[in-house]
C-alpha cells in the first residue's frame, strides 16, 4: 500500500499574504495606517482594534450580461460590509474600470468611520463593478446594474445594507437597483437604496448634499483659522456632483474659485472663474474643457496660489510629491482618501489644516440617512428642513472633532478617527460576541 503524500504547509515566515494584508500602499494600506495612528488613543477599547482591520463580509460576484451586439461580457462586482456594529451597512456603489477588492474594502471601512463620525446609525459598506460605463449603451448599463443587484441581493436590504450613488452612478442607477430588489422580494422596497429619484422616495436636497457638507465643514474650519470666506481663493479638483456644488456654494458666499480641474483639463483665472456658467457648460459637454480660462498642466494645479483647496475627485491625489508645492492654508477633502499618510505628515509640518474626508464629505450619507428615515415613515420633509438638519449635524460633528484635536494635539483626521473608532468599538464591546 502506497504511503500518503504529506500535505505541505508553508512555514509562517513564508506564508502567502492574506487578502487583509496591504502588499503596497493602496487605499486599504492607507486605511490600515490610519487605524494604527489612532490606536494609542483608544484606551481599553484598543483590545478590539483588530475588528477595524477586518471587513465583516466581502462578496465577490460575476456580472454577466448580453451586449447589444449579441456577445456575452463578464464584469467583476463587489459588495463589502466592513462593520455593522452600529447599524445596517451604508455606502455607495461605483462603476469604474479600476475598481478592486482592496479599494472597495478601504472605502467600506472609511464609511464605517464616516457614519460614526457624524453619528448616524449605520455601519460601513461599499460596492463596485469593474467596468467603464462610458463604453456601455443605456440598455447595457441597465442590464449590468440589474444583474449586479440580483447577485448581491442576498446581503442587501432596508435593514441590512443600503447602497447609494458613488462614482459614475446616479439616481437612475439607484432606481434600477430599487426596482430589481423589489421585484426579487415581491414588494416595493424604497428604502433599499438612497439617492433615488424624488418620484421613487428620494429626498429633496440629496443631489447637493455632499457638496453642501464640504461647504459647511470648510466654513467652520475657515472660521477657526480666522479666514474670511468672502474673497478667499478656492481651487477645486473634480467638477462632478461634489466639486461643482462646493464650488457653486463658495462662489455664492463671495469666494473666488480661481482654478478647477476635471478629468480632461485644468482651468485657471486669478480673478475668479464664472462657476454658474461653467456648471451650465459642463452639464452639456460633460467636461470643462473649452470653457474660458487659462489652461494649466495637471502638475501646475497643485501649485496654484489659493487659500482653500478642495480635492473632490478620486483617492490618492495629494502625495509626498505634490504636498510640498501646495499653497493653500486649508484643504477640504471632498473625495474619499485623496491624501496619502506621507502627504498628511508633510501638510502638518507646513501648518496646512486638512478637514478630512470622513467628516468633510459626510453630507451625502447624512442626507441619505434622512431619505431612509423618510422612506420608512412615508413622511417627507421640505428642502429647507433637510438643509437645516444637515447644517446642524455637520457643524456639531465638526466642532466635536475639532475639540478632540485640540485636547489631544492631533490632526483633525486623527481626531475624527478617535471619535469614530471609539463609537464603533463601544458598540462592539456592548454587543459582545455571539455565539
Automatic annotation (TrEMBL):
The keyword Isomerase does not apply. InterPro entries: Aminoacid_DH-like_N_sf, Glu/Leu/Phe/Val/Trp_DH, Glu/Leu/Phe/Val/Trp_DH_C, Glu/Leu/Phe/Val/Trp_DH_dimer, Glu/Leu/Phe/Val_DH_AS, Glu_DH, NAD(P)-bd_dom_sf, NAD_bind_Glu_DH. Keywords: Oxidoreductase. The keyword Oxidoreductase applies. Coiled coil: none annotated. It holds the Pfam family ELFV_dehydrog. Residues 203-432 form the Glutamate/phenylalanine/leucine/valine/L-tryptophan dehydrogenase C-terminal domain. SMART domains: ELFV_dehydrog. Belongs to the Glu/Leu/Phe/Val dehydrogenases family. This is Glutamate dehydrogenase. The lineage of its organism: Bacteria, Pseudomonadati, Pseudomonadota, Betaproteobacteria, Burkholderiales.
